[in-house]
Amino acid sequence: MTVPLSPLAFETLATLLKTRSGLIIGTDKLYLLETRLAGIIKREKLTDLNGLAERLRRPGSEAVARDVIEAMTTNESFFFRDDKPFLHFRTQALPRLVAARPPGNPIRVWSAASSSGQEAYSIAMIVSESSGVLHGRKVEIVGTDIARDQVVRAREGVYSQFEVQRGLPVQMLMRYFRKEDPNWRIVDTIRAMAQFREFNLLSDLRSLGRFDIVFCRNVLIYFDQPTKTRVLDGIAGLMAPDGLLYLGGAETVLGITTRFAPMPNERGVYGVVTAPATATPRMVPA
Asked: What is the pTM for the complete model shown?
């Protein structure tokens, strides 16, 4: 007979996920806890979620806590997901930024919550095919994810047949991948264009440096509103005044932050709102 999840155990797990990753889990999502944490429960020789929560409350539980966060973090990703942001990046963002930047200045692109690397490598493939626009200008691509195993996968650049069939045009598959039965490995020239690191969006973002373009798609939907505001405001603080932010189709900045504004006639594309300069106080005669 399965023992119901106690309120204390649920609070332990929900608090860990929110404070460490921003992920909000309600009582209607108990099935996610059960399915995604089953492997950890078995590995730790525990009986159920109650036992896992008790384990997390004990000293020396950091490694288990990290495993719980990684297991619960959604790692859904595929090449050229939703397509339109990549089309905008290729046809509008890159040409505009190249024209606005002094020669020699690199363009920096951040793929936040990059999972196993498909988004960052999609960007790299576009950059590779945009030499006529870039005129030798370097584009630096940084992918970050909270899950260590996903970062390792991204660095390796090896994908299954199923993964390369999701969104990747066959011409690009043949041009940028090499068959390693039963998988496909992205070519070294593309792999070298993207660097990946383990990073938590709730951390101090300033260590990442400044960016011209940020892809932060299908991430905010898992956060509550204060966390969304915190993350978006932090991203805005990293971006060039004419930088662009790409969000997922179900995400928006409206009602969450005033640091970004929708680009006219574009869905999911946002420009940075420059904070107004503080007015100099006028001296009033005594």
From this structure: 0.85
